[in-house]
Design goal:
By secondary structure, the protein is of the alpha/beta class.
């Protein structure tokens, strides 16, 4: 009963031995992790395409729930880089990043990920994560780290660009925009934040480097007025080209909305026509729908071009007598010899229409801005079956990838602490964390390597350290959100870049290649495919999984089959690999792998080739030590091999058969067909028994299968052959 309770509520096991000393250690560890988690989670939320404060929401309940219901005592759960990137890749085709629909889909994605992980844990199916092999994960992780780092370049340069169909195209757009304009204070502050974190981590590892960078850059931004925006009417733009572009852009955005409304109405009409069986109406409406879709693509392309043009326009500002600002094209002569304010200004252009009465002009760097205070709104996520079906494939990948990251970290820490770890219980903990997080407006979370390491180094003894971490996040949400206003966006970009440096490990490719070349190839292909298809990261993973399964099937369809011979030291080894001579009359054949439908014919082909090439062969000993399982196809193939050998006058025996295969042979009747006296416990016993009979009357000078000690052993009498085999054997001897 107690064991069952601990499985359902594992943290009861900590409470029984908890003490004041444990409380002190866990509190200090929880506080230390919170100082890293709060700024890091805000950065990861932006990586996921969400407002920064959603990172705090994802850091409130999930760490607490995962720690209480998981099996690891030091694993720190919350927003992580790879899962955040996967979230953005999943949701960007469905909605505009940061919008209400996007946020709703992110919460629903967290719910789907949580239910999938919880189901795997309850059903004890944690081994399903093995479909993501190490080479695939290594290739994907290296590519994801590069994608994550380069996705922050726009914030480091202080420019805005639209995301392209492929990530490398987006990066090229960022560089083109940076060549036109780079906000140098933003770049300098971002580089400073990165260098500070790197130096502190290298030389002062006990100092919370992320917190130090966040505090220093936030204070600098507040003191210097790093953010410098102005709200103006369009009449304050002394640039006719800009005013015309704003008008045309607003018209294109409105055109998109009108076309979307017409398409929605047309889709409803087409469904109604289908319900009434109006075939001609359906054809007309399908044609109109295709026309509308084409028109919408053209309008979107026009809006994208105008948005890019507006973002590329630079202005200089002049202060009027009444204190208002007038904006002129950058570099153009100013009227009456007036002097500009020394700043370079741009129009803030998002994905929505611009307000001609209140245009936002950017004259400084970007900061986080106002962060809503208080607890996240608790609510049941609105379930939409259609959206859930579209999210499900990515939810499965995120769930498996997130869990694999979490369990890898947990195993590494368990090896240091000596605690027991239950992967299925960890799945339950991660699943519940994502489910409860969905009720508090969280997006998918997982175990963090960097924060777990901090938690362990800070002396965390139980999962209550994560409870204290959640409490610190709660305090930040209730009382500290005004302090986050001046946090520079470039600092958050530097935090993300710093976090993913450790994920770039080229040595993983080299290691995979040294172990098995096909693993190295799979790792490199997964890496390249992930980079090429980004932001569609699921394609890179699926290519890697398919390649892994393909190699697995190919290796099992054509397992290693080798003829054994004795070395000078008397050991039986692969004759081809070690360059050993083979016996003329006895072939000791080793079959490595399960004998099932995929490779059954391969065994038959292999034995047939040996029968055809070795004319003086008298006995085959099939070493079955590597055959750990057998299905009906494998049993049938082995039966055919026995028939084929004995029909040609060649006897066949089995050595090293395990209990599972022996039971199958007994149930199928093949054991009696082979002959119980032809089944041997190991290779040496088989050779000692069959050697003398197979070499009767032989002119072979010295058998390569005979060791030095066996040369003086009295020849053993050959085992009696089955009656059906005796006649064929006599005919075979006559042919010699």
């Amino acid at each position: 009963m107690a064991t069952l309770v601990l499985k359902v509520i594992p943290f009861f096991g900590w409470i029984r031995t908890y003490s004041a000393a444990h409380l002190k250690m866990d509190f200090m560890a929880g506080l230390t992790v919170a100082l890293v988690l709060i700024p890091q989670s805000m950065a990861y939320a932006q990586l996921a395409g969400l407002p920064p404060y959603y990172g705090l929401y994802a850091s409130f309940l999930p760490p607490l729930v995962a720690a209480l219901f998981g099996s690891s005592r030091q694993l720190s759960t919350g927003p992580v880089a790879v899962v955040s990137l996967m979230t953005a890749a999943c949701l960007e085709p469905l909605a505009t990043a940061g919008g209400e629909s996007y946020i709703a889909y992110a919460v629903l994605l967290s719910l789907a990920v949580g239910f999938f992980q919880l189901s795997l844990g309850v059903l004890r199916l944690g081994l399903v994560v093995n479909f993501l092999s190490h080479p695939v994960v290594a290739g994907f992780t290296n590519a994801a780290a590069i994608i994550i780092a380069t996705s922050q370049l726009a914030k480091m340069f202080g420019v805005s660009v639209d995301s392209a169909e492929h990530h490398y195209e987006t990066v090229l757009r960022v560089f083109r925009a940076a060549m036109n304009y780079t906000h140098w204070p933003t770049l300098a502050l971002g580089v400073f934040a990165f260098a500070l974190m790197f130096a502190l981590k290298r030389f002062c590892p006990r100092v919370p480097n992320v917190l130090a960078a966040v505090v220093l850059t936030s204070v600098f931004a507040w003191a210097t007025g790093f953010e410098h925006n102005a709200s103006i009417g369009i009449q304050s733009l002394e640039a006719p080209q800009a005013s015309e572009a704003v008008t045309a852009y607003n018209a294109a955005i409105q055109g998109q909305a009108d076309l979307a409304a017409r398409r929605t109405a047309l889709t409803s009409a087409m469904e109604e026509a289908r319900a009434h069986g109006e075939l001609f109406a359906i054809v007309d409406e399908e044609h109109e729908l295709r026309r509308l879709s084409l028109e919408m693509e053209i309008t979107k392309s026009k809006a994208r071009s105008l948005r890019e043009a507006l973002r590329g326009m630079l202005f200089q500002a002049v202060t009027e007598a009444d204190g208002r600002l007038k904006f002129y094209p950058f570099g153009s002569p100013l009227p009456n010899g007036e002097v500009n304010d020394g700043r370079t200004w741009r129009i803030r252009v998002g994905n929505s229409a611009l307000d001609p009465v209140s245009l936002t002009m950017i004259g400084g760097g970007a900061v986080v801005g106002a962060v809503p205070g208080g607890l996240p709104p608790f609510s049941v996520p609105r379930f939409d079956a259609g959206v859930m079906l579209r999210l499900l494939p990515n939810a499965v990948i995120i769930a498996l990838l997130g869990f694999m990251e979490a369990i890898s970290i947990a195993k590494a820490m368990a090896a240091k602490t000596g605690q027991s770890l239950d992967p299925n219980q960890e799945l339950i903990g991660q699943g519940l964390a994502n489910i409860f997080g969905a009720f508090s407006r969280s997006y998918p979370v997982s175990g963090s390597f960097s924060r777990s390491a901090v938690n362990l180094q800070a002396g965390a003894l139980t999962g209550f350290s994560s409870v204290f971490t959640s409490a610190m996040v709660l305090v930040a949400l209730l009382f500290c959100t005004p302090l986050l206003y001046h946090l520079p966006q470039c600092t958050l970009a530097a935090v993300i870049m710093m976090a993913v440096i450790g994920l770039i490990q080229p040595s993983g490719f080299v290691h995979a290649w040294k172990v098995a070349r096909y693993d190295g190839v799979i790792s490199v292909i997964t890496f390249l495919a992930t980079l090429a298809f980004a932001p569609h990261l699921d394609k890179g993973i699926m290519i890697g999984v398919v390649l892994s399964l393909g190699v697995f099937l190919y290796r099992n369809m054509r397992p290693m089959v080798s003829s054994l011979a004795r070395t000078e030291e008397g050991e039986l080894r692969d004759a081809t690999r070690h360059g050993l001579a083979l016996c003329t009359h006895v072939d000791l054949v080793r079959f490595n792998g399960p004998l099932f439908f995929a490779n059954a014919s391969f065994l038959d082909e292999t034995i047939t080739r040996r029968l055809q090439s070795k004319k003086r062969l008298r006995h085959i000993v099939l070493v079955a030590k590597g055959i750990n399982d057998m299905d009906a196809s494998g049993e049938e193939a082995l039966s055919l091999v026995v028939d084929r050998c004995r029909s040609r006058g060649v006897d066949i025996s089995l050595a090293g058969v395990n209990d599972t295969v022996m039971a199958i042979l007994a149930r199928s009747g093949l054991l009696d067909k082979i002959g119980r006296d032809h089944i041997y416990a190991n290779m040496e016993k088989a050779l000692c028994t069959v050697h003398a009979g197979a070499h009767h009357g032989s002119d072979e000078a010295r058998c390569p299968l005979t060791s030095a000690c066996q040369l003086h052993v009295r020849p053993q009498v050959a085992q009696p052959r089955p009656r059906a085999f005796a006649a064929a054997g006599a005919a075979h001897d006559d042919r010699q």
